[in-house]
Design a protein that fits this description.
Layout: E1 6-21, E2 26-42, E3 46-50, H1 57-64, E4 72-77, E5 80-81, H2 87-96, E6 97-100, H3 104-107, H4 114-124, H5 132-142, H6 147-150, H7 159-171, E7 177-181, H8 189-206, E8 209-214, H9 217-223, E9 226-231, E10 234-240, H10 241-247, H11 251-259, H12 299-303, E11 308-312, E12 315-318, H13 320-324
Parallel strand pairs: 3-8, 3-9, 6-7, 7-8
Antiparallel strand pairs: 1-2, 1-4, 4-5, 9-10, 10-12, 11-12
Helix pairs in contact: 4-7, 5-7
The site of iron/sulfur cluster has 14 residues, from helix 13.
């Protein structure tokens, strides 16, 4: 069942990157980075987007903030189709949707103080004219930093402080929707939970909507109401997070849960112990994307895409085994 308080919805999103070759640098093939991403996120909710490295998560995030054009599919924001917006509409949307990447060091200009980085963003969007400094100060407080940090360069901050500064800069444009792409993966284990707590606290206070991209199931369990599992550019299961941990139906999700014991979010455990080769993204998917590595594979799996089965309130799965039950 879907709800009418949906902020973001994507339908059958696809992204193929051309591969160029030969002397003439012609298109000789494609990387099928995203084959079908479909999900929705309610206002004020956190949706986890989980999959191993190379499954297309960052590409989905980049499409959502319009750094990348989708090859196919649709994006809706507040019920409006924003797939092809341009000009002033695009500029408006770019303020509402912000992305925070894994590596805070790469996201900040190393030659600018935190103050200048934050004020620059306000100036670009013509916000808080004449009040930029006071607002930068308020943002520091919001993210658990203080005035002195405004005068630091990125290299003068710790990893956790740098990510807080990146969050402050993203919040400077007063966004509604934040895409958090592995926001704690580059941080020391001891500060990962602190940054997740900050994100939770900000959401409770200001009702931000999050898409949390991660390969770490402990992180989604800690922070996401619902979760989407992606494999090779395609969603394979989506469910309320609690239910996913109790009764995952897709063999890939089950394998993920088995290979990653989830004690608490402070413990870093990122190994995916699934046998077989990781998928090759240069051939299009035929049938089930997990067929090469699935212990339960049947003939039909290799040739025909499994249909979407609804197996509970907001719990859907794409697997022939479930279909035949
Ligand atoms: N700009 C690009 N050009 C070509 N291939 C890309 C580009 N960005 C991502 N890819 C490829 O798309 C696939 C998905 O990448 P990505 O979205 O970064 O996955 P994830 O974030 O889940 O690790 C990978 O095979 C990656 O190499
Ligand atoms: S459709 Fe077949 S190959 Fe794919 S996950 Fe289900 S059982 Fe395994
Ligand atoms: Mg990524």
């Amino acid at each position: 069942m879907e709800h009418d308080d949906i902020l973001v919805k994507v339908e059958n999103l696809k992204k193929y990157f051309p591969i160029y070759g030969g002397i003439l640098q012609r298109v000789v093939g494609y990387i099928y980075a995203v084959e079908d991403a479909s999900f929705y996120i309610r206002k004020g909710e956190t949706l986890g987007l989980v999959g191993e490295s190379g499954s297309g998560k960052t590409t989905v995030g980049r499409i959502l903030v319009k750094l990348e054009e989708p090859t196919g599919g649709k994006i809706f924001y507040n019920s409006s189709d924003i797939t092809n917006i341009k000009g002033s509409e695009l500029k408006k949307y770019r303020r509402k949707a912000q992305i925070i990447f894994q590596d805070p060091y790469a996201s900040l200009n190393p030659r600018m103080t935190i103050k200048d980085s934050i004020i620059e963003v306000m100036k670009v969007h013509r916000l808080h004219k004449g009040e930029e400094y006071n607002n930068a100060l308020k943002l520091m407080e919001k993210v658990g930093l203080s005035e002195e940090h405004l005068y630091r360069f990125p290299h003068e901050l710790s990893g956790g402080q740098r990510q807080r500064a990146v969050i402050a800069r993203a919040l400077a444009v007063e966004p509604e929707f934040l895409i958090l792409d592995e926001p704690t993966a580059s941080l020391d284990v001891s500060v990962q939970a602190q940054v997740l707590d900050l994100l939770k606290e900000l959401q409770e206070k200001y009702n931000y909507t999050y898409l949390l991209i991660t390969h770490n199931l402990a992180v989604v369990r800690y922070i996401s109401e619902r979760t989407v599992i992606m494999y090779r550019g395609m969603w394979v299961e989506t469910s309320p997070t609690k239910e996913l941990f109790n009764k995952a139906e897709h063999p890939y999700t089950q394998a993920l849960l088995k290979s990653v014991p989830i004690p608490d979010p402070e413990v870093k455990k990122d190994k995916f112990l699934i046998s077989g080769e990781p998928p090759n993204p240069t051939t299009p998917v035929k049938g089930c994307p997990f067929a090469d590595r699935c212990p339960y594979v049947m003939d039909i799996c290799k040739n025909e895409m499994p249909p979407v089965e609804s197996i509970g309130d907001e719990h859907k799965v794409r697997c022939w085994l479930v279909n035949k039950k």
